[in-house]
């Protein structure tokens, strides 16, 4: 039995992060989070209207890019307005390939599953989809990735 088969899905460190399916970016490319297995992934939930999560989305994205950390960042925005979301990405100068807008039913399902009513979160998951850490600041992420 593999190590991950004995783990349960959940939203806390040590759990397998539940798959996020059918994410579609601005250019129409669709992915599932599970498509990224085999690499470290930082999943970041945010919204332009939430200053703290918006700031972290920008800082984490720019940190990963500038330091060339071996981690893929997948950002899921909960902005209600697609035009606000799109303008925000342009202003923030963020690579849009892994930026996604949660819409409709997917938005409420993700919001509830990840308990985001308590605040937006981020998750660092390992190559097997297991949560290593959550709610990382840019400094936390840098420290964790420099240890490995």
From TrEMBL:
InterPro entries: AhpC/TSA, Thioredoxin-like_sf. Residues 14-133 form the Alkyl hydroperoxide reductase subunit C/ Thiol specific antioxidant domain. Gene3D superfamilies: Glutaredoxin. SUPFAM superfamilies: Thioredoxin-like. This is Alkyl hydroperoxide reductase subunit C/ Thiol specific antioxidant domain-containing protein. It comes from Dysgonomonas gadei ATCC BAA-286.
